[in-house]
Amino acid sequence: MRLLIISADSFIARDTSRKVRDHYVVDVSCSGDDGLMLANTNYYDGIIIDNGLTDISGLEMCGIIREDGIASPILMLLEKECACKRGLYLDTGADMCLIKPVEQLLLLSKLRAIARKNCHHICCSSLKIGHLHIDFQDKIILRDDTEITLRRKEYDLFEYLIRNKGISVSKEDLLEHIWDKGMDVASNTVEVHMTRLRKKIESDPEKKLIKTIHGYGYRVDW
């Protein structure tokens, strides 16, 4: 899952990134203008905005993001003296407001909460597909009672496709969503990971859970 952090404060940006990077692919922007460009260019499962931006206010950022038609959940980081204005931020487009500094477990739980609220597809904490049981919270997949060992990127690919059940997802979308921005990724990276994933997930080659959309990408149906 992909997250955008927008903060002009390098310490807050690094600290917030550190708290979430084990669970999300993270992009960081140090200005409102750059953050808006990234938000309009990429899909994010969540956007964290530090209210202490210097080129634009956090309130304006929320409004512009929503005016641009971006539906990603927004979590605002506010100073203690701004706590009384939380209602204004929520009315302008934020999904959640937290007072800085935010403890790691609280931040992660709030991100999961707004993701569940805004998810239009599979949004449960666990799912059973035939002999497979997927635990989204602990990122564990079982076949019957045996855990399937997946690398992180393999799991991220599978979860992203599952949460977009029935939707054809392009290889470009998977690259942007699963891999860190700016990484030097080989052109066949998605195909290589998908081949490994299928060998581990699909025990019956006649019953393919992950469908290939030739010339485009992949889709999960069951």
TrEMBL record:
The modification 4-aspartylphosphate is found at D50. Residues 124-222 form the OmpR/PhoB-type domain. GO terms for biological process: regulation of DNA-templated transcription. Residues 2-115 form the Response regulatory domain. PROSITE patterns: OMPR_PHOB, RESPONSE_REGULATORY. The keyword Transcription applies. It comes from the Bacteria. Keywords: DNA-binding, Phosphoprotein, Transcription, Transcription regulation, Two-component regulatory system. Pfam families: Response_reg, Trans_reg_C. InterPro entries: CheY-like_superfamily, OmpR/PhoB-type_DNA-bd, Sig_transdc_resp-reg_C-effctor, Sig_transdc_resp-reg_receiver, WalR-like, WH-like_DNA-bd_sf. GO terms for molecular function: phosphorelay response regulator activity; transcription cis-regulatory region binding. One of its GO terms (cellular component) is cytosol. SUPFAM superfamilies: C-terminal effector domain of the bipartite response regulators (SSF46894), CheY-like (SSF52172). CDD domains: trans_reg_C. Residues 124-222 bind DNA. SMART domains: REC (SM00448), Trans_reg_C (SM00862). This is Two component transcriptional regulator, winged helix family protein. It comes from candidate division WWE3 bacterium GW2011_GWB1_41_6.
